[in-house]
Design goal:
two-stranded antiparallel sheet, 13 strands, alpha+beta
Length: about 425
């Protein structure tokens, strides 16, 4: 059975139907739009992260750290006390590249969170087709290792990797580069580096969706890349995949301190874009919360009007033995009823719109590529939307509820009720 306070609150709601419907509609819109905007912004952020991790890995090791910091002796003569002062970021010299990649890879595989390691050698080259020539970069890889640290296998849009694996002169071209040079799978082209020209054949065409990669990166077998770039030993960097991607910053610091090579996590490399997405999520949340704020103000106004119009009823209730707390609960129940209906309908509306938006066709290329809106289905979006509505609406309802609770029957009879 429902409590008498709840039953009275439900009856009072009919006194201001239009005003209550306005509050209800604002709650529904606020909750629904909050869910949709957070789902889309989070979806694009997560898709961007997956693209980056699938292309450049979770951690990149490059440049050996040569420690040149000096020990400083201090203390009085004969005191025998020594201490060392080191300043982070100062006194360090970085030696470009990795001299012994095999030894470093062996050490990296001992870290518990490492899922895959791949050495990469890259350098500038000129690519020439029968149509035109452009400046690009050749990336030498060991294919099986590279597949463990990237999504290269899933990024192939034409051809397949078997031809690349079994053909020393095979190459993988980005889709944008292939289109600009009018090259298809099986076509041959020339790469020039350090005054030497060699002919290669397109084994497959990949597409990451990142324009800066698809336009300039040519993958070669490691042996061919070493010969073309005249780099018989060493590597440019080592790409690492992790089981737990969120631990990349801590693992990078650990690797750097142990191995004495600079290590950059994906969060550090993409810090600018991650901050952009974070700012976008916050700005959209603030913007759509205006609807919830309006709902709170409307609820405040509606309850205040009900208090003014229902002073006699409140006096009767007080004379019947209802306490200050009971009266306050009656008006808070009114807000709670509208809020409950609004959040339920709002979450359903948000889920429906989110599903519809996920089916909207869109063509985006640049920092990633997608042909539909990307959404993230997270229960936290709904929790955050409901909490925002609860805080704003209930906070706005407290003042009218407390005012109603302060009414005394004698004041109402004398006409001195405030």
């Amino acid at each position: 059975m429902t409590s008498p306070n709840f039953q009275i609150a439900a009856r009072f709601l009919t006194a201001k139907k239009r005003a209550m419907l306005m509050s209800l509609s604002c709650i529904v819109l606020g909750v629904g739009l909050f869910v949709v905007t957070q789902a889309t912004t989070s979806g694009f952020e997560e898709f961007f992260i997956r693209t980056i991790l699938g292309t450049n890995g979770a951690i990149r090791i490059e440049d050996k750290i040569q420690d040149t910091m000096r020990s400083m002796e201090a203390g009085g003569q004969g005191s025998g006390s020594n201490f060392h002062i080191s300043m982070r970021g100062e006194g360090k010299k970085y030696i470009e590249g990795i001299e012994e990649p095999k030894l470093l890879i062996g050490a990296l595989r001992r870290f518990e969170n490492v899922a895959g390691v791949s050495e990469v050698l890259h350098g500038p080259v000129i690519i020439r087709s029968s149509f035109k020539s452009e400046s690009v970069r050749a990336y030498g890889i060991n294919l099986d290792d590279q597949l463990l640290v990237s999504d290269l296998g899933n990024q192939i849009v034409r051809g397949n990797l078997n031809g690349f694996r079994g053909t020393p002169s095979g190459a993988l071209l980005g889709r944008e580069m292939a289109d600009r040079l009018q090259l298809a799978v099986g076509d041959s082209f020339i790469l020039e580096a350090r005054g030497e020209s060699r002919r290669y054949r397109v084994s497959a065409i990949y597409e990451t969706g990142v324009a800066d990669i698809d336009r300039v990166r040519v993958y070669l077998n490691m042996g061919e890349a070493r010969s073309l770039l005249q780099r018989p030993t060493g590597a440019s960097f080592i790409q690492i995949n992790l089981f737990d991607k969120d631990r990349a910053p801590q693992d990078a610091l650990h690797m750097e301190s142990v191995l004495q090579y600079s290590a950059a996590s994906w969060q550090e490399r993409e810090k600018t874009w991650l901050n952009v997405f974070k700012a976008l999520r916050l700005s959209t949340a603030i913007t759509v919360s205006v609807f919830t704020l309006i709902a709170g103000l409307a609820m405040f106004n509606t309850l205040a009007m009900i208090v003014m119009e229902k002073t006699k009823e409140i006096a009767i209730l007080r004379s019947m033995g209802y306490t200050h707390r009971d009266i306050s609960h009656i008006f808070l129940w009114q807000a709670a009823i509208v809020l409950t209906i609004g959040t339920i309908v709002g979450t359903l509306l948000g889920a429906a719109i989110t599903f519809g938006v996920s089916r909207v066709p869109i063509n985006i290329t640049g920092i990633f590529k997608t042909e539909t809106f990307i959404v993230s289905w997270s229960v936290w979006h709904y929790v955050e939307a409901c909490l925002t509505a609860v805080i704003m609406v209930m906070a706005a309802s407290l003042i009218p509820a407390r005012r109603a609770a302060r009414l005394e029957p004698g004041d109402v009879i004398r006409g001195t009720a405030q």
